[in-house]
Amino acid sequence: MTDLKVVVAGAGGRMGAAVIAAIAATPGLSLHAALDRQDSPVAGKDVGQLAGLPPLAIPVTCDSEAALAGADALIDFTAPTVSVLLAELAAPRGLVHVIGTTGMTAEEDWSIAKAGQAGARIVKSGNFSLGVNVLAGLVRQASRMLAEYDIEIVETHHNRKVDAPSGTALLLGQAAAEGRDIDLDRNSVRGRDGHTGARPNGTIGFASLRGGTVVGDHTVLLAGPSERIELTHRAENRSIFAHGALHAALWANNQPPGLYGMADVLGFSR
Ligand code: NAD
Prior knowledge:
Layout: E1 4-9, H1 14-24, E2 29-35, H2 47-50, E3 60-61, H3 64-68, E4 73-76, H4 80-90, E5 96-99, H5 106-117, E6 121-124, H6 130-145, E7 150-157, H7 167-180, H8 184-187, E8 188-190, E9 204-210, E10 217-224, E11 227-234, H9 239-252, E12 258-260, H10 262-266
Parallel strand pairs: 1-2, 1-4, 2-3, 4-5, 5-6, 6-12, 7-9, 8-9
Antiparallel strand pairs: 7-10, 10-11
Helix pairs in contact: 1-9, 4-5, 6-7
Bound molecules: nicotinamide-adenine-dinucleotide.
Nicotinamide-adenine-dinucleotide (NAD) is lined by residues 9-10, 12-16, 35-37, 40, 77-79, 82, 100-103, 125-128, 167, 241.
């Protein structure tokens, strides 16, 4: 069987480097091209150098159309507006498009879903690690069983992260909301400051901390009368997301066009 030819978008980023290294270590995949923005300091550099590998004779390009020509899959950890544009390019080509970018608006999410109907096989997730997706299942179950407990989600990330709450915090919030059969958007409290009044019953609170080089820590707190449960995941390095994204690409290659999540890839029933 021939290798799945993969384009990495955001090749000069923290996740881009992790994905390039993971492709080199994964049978059945080969790096087809590497994309970054036009004014990126890594433009024109050999991708091997970015990921601490020997030279791969693939220079980082900013030409999306040329990069996607002849490719099978696109792994995309960039920025919301970039992922929307890439989805519009991936759909007519019937590509597998794995989207790890977080911080999308509802409108951007809608544009991605539309691309899924237009021919792309998209896997989009706020977190591609196995551990976090198992945690989401536990959160769904705990929030259903402890229906009266207050739920707060606390996340910590490195000081370069630009969106809050993290995509993972929102994914865990969504799992908690599903466990309670409520709408997350209508029941979220995003940060508190000043005279906030008492905590409204049934809400799901979010708090974001930023500092240093933390890859990603998430705790879901369920607080009830005289007791608390804390469900925590700590990412130790980015390889867990990179390997999950590649696993998703191989899985999606055998699926019909559509928009999928990691629960589909991992075969988790809700
Ligand atoms: P980063 O800033 O290190 O990397 C982003 C890269 O995208 C940069 O190299 C940037 O130059 C590039 N980029 C910007 N515009 C571009 C364009 N037009 N074309 C191609 N490339 C372009 O960020 P990061 O830490 O690698 O994270 C990237 C995204 O992935 C963020 O949204 C982050 O929250 C998310 N993330 C998701 C997961 C997950 O499992 N879903 C895990 C980690 C990070």
